[in-house]
Amino acid sequence: MSKVAVVFWSGTGNTETMANAVAEGAAAKGAEVETVQAADFSAAMAPDFDAIAFGCPAMGSEELEDGEFQPMWDDVKPELDGKKIALFGSYDWGTGEWMDTWREDAEDAGATVVDTVIANNEPDDEALAACSELAGQLL
Description:
Layout: E1 3-8, H1 14-28, E2 32-37, E3 51-55, H2 69-76, E4 84-91, H3 97-108, E5 112-120, H4 125-138
Parallel strand pairs: 1-2, 1-3, 3-4, 4-5
Helix pairs in contact: 1-4
């Protein structure tokens, strides 16, 4: 059985909704799933999981949230070399550029990014289904 972490930060609840869909999708595929707020996750925890899904909305000028998520992300990145990860989040403006930048950063750290999912504002049924499918790619 695969052990999957779903690590996220959410300001409005949109990314949390997506995180729940990822977690439910992984559990439905038989994974042991732990959902963790970004502030509660650290590099020391990363080796405990076979795969990790990270969720963060676009903030500012299309960047990761810098108070809790970015510091956690910077701490965890060295532990991602060779690890399967997925990235997801919501945005309200722009084109989703933050996800392209984030994926590149993850790949530069050596992570295997299986896929990404973005939603404009509140995730619709299509985005939630994509989150559930994203989980299956981690296993």
